[in-house]
From TrEMBL:
UniProt name for this protein: Uncharacterized protein
InterPro entries: TumE-like
Protein species of origin: Halochromatium glycolicum
Native organism taxonomy: Bacteria, Pseudomonadati, Pseudomonadota, Gammaproteobacteria, Chromatiales
Domain of life: Bacteria
C-alpha cells in the first residue's frame, strides 16, 4: 500500500522562519484513526524547531505513532 502525496508547501519567510506542511492520502485508514491521511507540520528555523506535529505510520509494519513536540 503506497501513500499518495496530496499537498506539500514550504515557505522560508523573510524573518528566517520555515513553515512546512505535507499531507498524504493512504489507501485505507490506519487504526485507531478513521481517516485515510497522514501529515507533517513544521514551524521553526534552520537550527531551532518551535512546533512540530506529525502523524507517522509504517504501513507495512506495526509501528504507528503520533506526536506533538514544542521547543522554545
Amino acid at each position: 500500500m503506497a501513500a499518495a502525496l496530496l499537498a506539500h508547501a514550504k515557505e522560508i519567510r523573510d524573518d528566517g522562519f520555515i513553515v512546512e506542511m505535507v499531507v498524504w492520502e493512504l489507501p485505507e485508514p490506519l487504526p485507531p484513526c478513521r481517516h485515510r491521511y497522514k501529515y507533517r507540520l513544521f514551524f521553526g528555523t534552520g537550527d531551532r524547531c518551535w512546533v512540530r506535529i506529525h502523524a507517522v505510520s509504517t504501513i507495512s509494519g506495526s509501528t504507528r505513532s503520533c506526536s506533538i513536540s514544542r521547543w522554545a
